[in-house]
Amino acid sequence: MKTLVAGMVAVAVGGLGGCASPTVFEGKYAQDDGWRKGTVVEIGPANSLKRPSFYDCRAEASDAEGDKPYVMVAFLRNGHPYARAAKLPADAQLQVGDKVCVNFKDCNAPIPKRSSSTSDEKDFN
Questions:
Q1: Taking residues 6-32, what's their average pLDDT?
Q2: 42 near 49, Cβ under 8 Å?
Q3: How far is residue 8's CA from residue 21's CA, in Å, rounded to a whole number?
Q4: Report field, pTM of the whole predicted structure over 0.90
Q5: What CA–CA distance (Å, rounded) separates 116 from 118?
Q6: How far apart are CA 40 and CA 74, in angstroms?
Q7: Is 18 helix (H, G, I), strand (E, B) or coil?
Q8: Are 59 and 92 in contact (CB under 8 A)?
Q9: 64 or 91: which carries more pLDDT confidence?
Q10: For residue 54, what is the DSSP state?
Q11: Taking Cα atoms as reference points, which of 2, 74, 63 lies closest to residue 38?
Q12: How far apart are CA 41 and CA 38, in angstroms?
């Protein structure tokens, strides 16, 4: 009887583990690595962005970069709204309102636009 119960528990636990699959955006940006869907809400010099940012890459920038362009991206993490301020990549060509992928763990990560097939998924604006 104990063997039967232990076997059933092992099967149940194994089955639950198989149901959990990692969330990946655009086929390459894993949520476990810090990637989230977001929306560009502000672009401007680092020292003039108005929106508060919980994940702020400006703290890592030198004072000499105060006039460099930065981007503020709003996103959801665990269902709560957050924002990430990050240096605007030179080749990004982002505009306010663009749907992007943002990595809240890595200030040096790119900020790629999302494809149109995922642009209408729910995210924070």
A1: 63
A2: yes
A3: 22
A4: no
A5: 5
A6: 6
A7: helix
A8: no
A9: 91
A10: S
A11: 74
A12: 9
